[in-house]
Amino acid sequence: MDLDTARQELKEFIPHVENLSDSSIKKMVGRDLPRFKEFKKQGIAVKFGRFTQKENNQIRKNVEEFLSISGLDSAEKLLFTSRYPEDKETINRLKAEHEFCAKISEGIPRPWRLIYYRARKMFDSNNYKGRYTNEEKEQLKKYQAMHGNDWKKISELMSRSNLSVAMKFSEIKSAVNYGPWTKEEIQKLKHAVKEVIRKRVERRSSPSSLERPDWELWVDRETLCQQLPWTEIETKVGSRFWRQCKQKWNTILVKKMSKGQQLDTWIKRCKNRITLIKRLYEMKVEDANEVNWEELCDAVGDVPSAYLQAQFYKLKVSFVPFWQNKTFSEIIDFLFQYKLPELEEKL
């Protein structure tokens, strides 16, 4: 099946399919499209957003059944194979033989990727370690000095998840600014992004093409939107978390790409914020990592997921007092109760 046909068939089930990369489309054709069509025959719609208790139970059942038929002795080996390098070849062979992808998604009308990530979160013992002790913080600083930003290596040494150690190091390494971005910070961010993108272009371009003085004009949109090494960029900026750098860059990118269009008018922005708050509140999500921003794109309109995340960040920083000390659900509740009526009145 060619990519255009695949996108067209998937669009019936994934409204935001145009925003997905070609590689994601290819994977979904094999893993998801046949399942989606089968669910359609049963009158079941594809779901996004927060997983229900019933779905969580189904994931546990699917994992337990796969362990039973494959002979593997733990969900950690199945879902975190890289932690067991000596058994990696055997585990991967068993996954292929017993059709791991099909088995883990059985009975759940969602994209395979989301089911897999949910299973990893549910069965990762390193996700539930609690607060870092002072000793752990010192260990983290020592390991980072030894191994740089090799968070996979550091996570193994500390028995914490990759994301956990990366985020914690961002918090403890330096003073971080939570206020509005200064012109100097924005310039540092732009220079940092420019530097890492130039390195990427140099790695895949011929020497002659880089000799042109206008090489930067030929950086395509896909390169600008790709995942960047945000911890490296954070280091270059010096005064912001990597997540702040990512959100700010996405905001800059959206403004550049939508210049001359009507996306950024006040009325459109206000409507987007209203819809965003309502949809986040309806999801009843307790953790920011469970929000499917791509799904929200379809609910809000023709905007990138990066734009929505940037809008949410602005809302909480600008209008939620002491937001750093609040949980994700508390932030959403506050915006829904106090900011939403104000926006609707202004609109």
UniProtKB/TrEMBL annotation:
<dbReference type="GO" id="GO:0006363">
    <property type="term" value="P:termination of RNA polymerase I transcription"/>
</dbReference>
<protein>
    <submittedName>
        <fullName>TTF1 factor</fullName>
    </submittedName>
</protein>
<dbReference type="InterPro" id="IPR009057">
    <property type="entry name" value="Homeodomain-like_sf"/>
</dbReference>
<dbReference type="GO" id="GO:0003682">
    <property type="term" value="F:chromatin binding"/>
</dbReference>
<feature type="domain" description="Myb-like">
    <location>
        <begin position="173"/>
        <end position="253"/>
    </location>
</feature>
<dbReference type="Pfam" id="PF13921">
    <property type="entry name" value="Myb_DNA-bind_6"/>
</dbReference>
<dbReference type="GO" id="GO:0005730">
    <property type="term" value="C:nucleolus"/>
</dbReference>
<dbReference type="InterPro" id="IPR053078">
    <property type="entry name" value="TTF1-like"/>
</dbReference>
<dbReference type="InterPro" id="IPR001005">
    <property type="entry name" value="SANT/Myb"/>
</dbReference>
